[in-house]
């Protein structure tokens, strides 16, 4: 049986009713937060 990975939604794609469960699924460890900044920095450098 194949496992299904959960789909990661961006904050702008989350509906108000889904917000609490979305926040619980986020990685608030220092490594997770650093990854968010790294991805955003790469996107900024890619398009500018």
Protein model, in words:
This is ATP synthase subunit f, mitochondrial-like. Its main location: mitochondrion. The longest helix is centred in the C-terminal third of the chain and has 18 residues. The protein has one domain. The protein starts with 18 loop residues before the first helix and ends with a helix. The protein is flat. By secondary structure, it is an all-alpha fold. It contains two helices and no strands.
Low-confidence stretches: none
What is the straight-line distance between the termini? 43 Å
- Gyration radius over CA: 14 Å
Residue share in β-strands: under 5%
Number of helices: 2
Helical residue percent band: 40-55%
Give helix and strand order, one letter per element, not per position: HH
The total beta strand count reads 0
Biggest sheet layout: none
Structural class: mainly alpha
Shape: flat
In total, the number of domains comes to 1
Give the averaged pLDDT, no decimals. Answer: 80
Keywords: ATP synthesis, CF(0), Hydrogen ion transport, Ion transport, Membrane, Mitochondrion, Transport
Family: Belongs to the ATPase F chain family.
Subcellular location: Mitochondrion membrane
Protein name: ATP synthase subunit f, mitochondrial-like
């Amino acid at each position: 049986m194949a496992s299904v990975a959960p789909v990661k939604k961006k904050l702008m794609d989350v509906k108000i009713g889904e917000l609490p469960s979305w926040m619980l699924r986020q990685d608030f460890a220092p490594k997770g937060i650093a990854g968010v900044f790294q991805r955003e920095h790469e996107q900024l450098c890619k398009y500018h």
